[in-house]
Amino acid sequence: MPDGPLDLEETVGSLRQSEKIQLLSGVDFWHTASIPRLLIPQVRMSDGPNGVRGTKFFDSVPAACLPCGTGLAATWDTQLIEDAGHLIAKECKAKGAHIWLGPTANIQRYAPVHFSYAPVAALQFVYPVEISDLPFPFRSPLGGRGFESFSEDPVLSGTMAAAMIKGVQADGVASAMKHFVANDMEHQRTSVNCIISQRALREIYLLPFQIAVRDNPPWALMTSYNKVNGTHMCENKEILQDLVRDEWEWEGAFVSDWYGTYSTSEAVIAGLDIEMPGPSTWRGELLSKALSVSKVTHRQLDARVRSVLQLLNRVQAAKIPERAPEHIRDTQETRDRLRKLAGNGLVLLKNERNVLPLKRDQKIAVIGPNAKVARYCGGGSAYLKPYSVTSIYDSICDMAPDAKFAQGCEVYNALPLMGDFLRTENGRTGYFTFTIFTDPPKNLKRTAIEVLELNDSNVVLYDYQNSLVADNLLYATITGDLVVEKSADYILGLTVAGTAKLYIDNCLVVDNEETQTIGESFFGSGTVEETGRLYLEANKTYKLRVEFGSAPTSKTSKAGSPVFGAGGVRVGCARVCDEEAEIQGAVELAREVDCVVLCCGLNSDFEAEGFDRATMALPGAQAKLIELISEANPNVVLVTQSGTPVEAPWESVPAVLHSWYGGNEGSVAIADVLFGATNPSGKLPLSWPHRAEDNPAFLNHRSDEGRCIYGEDIFVGYRFYEKSLRQVQWPFGYGLSYATFAIQNIQVNCSDDKDILNRVLDVSLEIVNTSCEMGGSEVVQVYVQGPSLSRVSRPVKELKGFQKVFLAAGEKRSVCVSMPLKYTTSFWSELENAWVMEAGAYTVLVGTSSHDTPLARGFLINSSATWTGI
């Protein structure tokens, strides 16, 4: 890195045209170009959004995994999220990353069609119908990547994003807030035209970004794949230039999503500064030609270059060397912070008869498909290799060592990874040998170019680099000793972005080469899982071999799904189980104990980038398991794990704790809450509908011939449920505590600034912890109801501010929530093309969820005013 900041004008004037063009795209998957003669450094980017993976999907360096976006927003704690930003910055420095690709601030608006998965992992291992094989794709409550985003509410989303950006950038690391804008579904995400009214666009989808730009401007914004009102975001000048740069006066750099640039001249003119990844597809020689015929002017080129240079100047403060080696920083401080983050986001949804907290001397059974497997994050670009994780069962055993376990049922969307089924020839359990070639297996004289020992049988080669590999064409052989503990029939599976065949003792068991079916794996560029079944004897060594060809060897292609690098291969295996016997065994155990912790939900197979969930229903036999276990024992605590809402027989159980995907320390945090070491304080950042059909986007949930109409307009989430008087399972902002609280004595005051647009609305009140024994935290939520005679249709109320408060047992505190008056009262007028602070009587409603707002106080706006900008 240079000793000091670059002089922008001097540097722009010194750059050759070819060098300017180089700066406007990546050179590889994660790095920008450097210009050594002018001391212009190369910088590194890294995913995001719940950690810092570094430069490798393949054989990556372990990292700190934070809770998913919905789990972070469930804390409703801006200081805690700012602290999370500081942790992200430290992780970036450990991975040599100057730019962090996060946070994600899209809005969860979608619901799936009510469609049930076929029972997975039943006696015959019947797998769900592939989404791509259905008559039309379905939507999930929040889309495939809903878990990455914060909330259905733009104020909560924007406030959380601003807090995290503040922490990240305070330490000199750039935040690239994403996905700008309306990347709210995975179905046809690169081509879908999201048709959104200007009012909804401003009030719902752009507002999280506007709040972040207002409070803590991100140094970069990542453009989304989709179109908005007819124009791809990477070339949407009306939004990128006219709105963000001119109206909001934002001074940052626009970075494309990976392979999300679709033009040369249009994207440069619109304001897209950096095309990622490299080598460039749309710039390079194409941009040089566009300049030569004045499709792009030199002034427009220089504007893009200045943005890039300014970004490089800003990240110099982090003092991260170019091409820095990646390392692990697994410290106790990191673990403690991750544990606190996860614990503060857990939401206690139900606690009849005070089943919780548990006592350590109780006889406890831990049951369910998520009990012994750590479900720490969702899939796709959010996935990373954690420093360490523990299961819920192991974490409970740390507090109650005599806890018993039963599986109950299995839940997979793809077969579980090989794990301890495999070992290397030298006996290293959990590992296998991955040998890479440039020639196919038919070349018997081929020579390996690299030999690795890996412990993750989901081998992702998006960013694999070797100077001997051309055009991402390579071949690899997976070898290992396969040993099982129980004699039984087993299912082995292959999913691939490329081609692959699996052999056991040189006999072909699975063929995913000769006939392939397009699926949703590998960000939508891979196949469905092909499987084979065979009987394996316990403790006998079988020779497993997989012959893999990288993405260019694939015989399938899917319109609108970019192929990332060399693709990848996933190898899975599971014992064929008697589901009825598994459930019956769990029921018998439940009858023998004082209480049951029942661990159900989803995992990264069901919530991931590249596809959308097919249903809100819990997959497999989980609903049946919940009902039968609750019949066998009256004291059942259902611990659910998912990034977005699910359907379950909630009425069957007395206690429900929702835990999202909690990151490295998620399971430990769950045990803390179960046994009362942590008092739950999380609040839902989204509404939890009874069923998919209740969702406001149910009729507009997919791309229909390339378009998706946002027909619910501004009535997203609780705005819709309240306006339509539709009941939900649990409302937005809801969450219980082991303590009890009361709020009282509301006061509303407005500052007396002469300019009404600069005034601040202060809402003050008292909050009391009415518990005698336990301290705890409560979230004061401030909603505003618009004038009854408003000139436009308005929601019943909208969240405008909040504050999380900790109180010791019996403590009383005064709380004041301050909000810009214009943000609390304005709507976007499509007639005036401006925000309108409408004259009239407003009501402040304060409570602890959107359905519980007992305090009310009115205020008056005497005259209307319009405004634009921030």
TrEMBL record:
Keywords: Carbohydrate metabolism, Cellulose degradation, Glycoprotein, Glycosidase, Hydrolase, Polysaccharide degradation. Belongs to the glycosyl hydrolase 3 family. Coiled coil: none annotated. Its EC number is 3.2.1.21. InterPro entries: Cellulose_deg_GH3, Fn3-like, GH, Glyco_hydro_3_C, Glyco_hydro_3_C_sf, Glyco_hydro_3_N, Glyco_hydro_3_N_sf, Ig-like_fold. It catalyses: Hydrolysis of terminal, non-reducing beta-D-glucosyl residues with release of beta-D-glucose. It comes from Penicillium angulare. It is an enzyme of class 3 (hydrolase). PROSITE patterns: PA14 (PS51820). This is Probable beta-glucosidase I. One of its GO terms (biological process) is cellulose catabolic process. Pfam families: Fn3-like (PF14310), Glyco_hydro_3 (PF00933), Glyco_hydro_3_C (PF01915), PA14 (PF07691). Gene3D superfamilies: Galactose-binding domain-like (2.60.120.260), Glycoside hydrolase family 3 C-terminal domain (3.40.50.1700), Glycoside hydrolase, family 3, N-terminal domain (3.20.20.300), Immunoglobulins (2.60.40.10). Residues 427-587 form the PA14 domain. Pathway: Glycan metabolism; cellulose degradation. It comes from the Eukaryota. One of its GO terms (molecular function) is beta-glucosidase activity. SUPFAM superfamilies: (Trans)glycosidases, Beta-D-glucan exohydrolase, C-terminal domain.
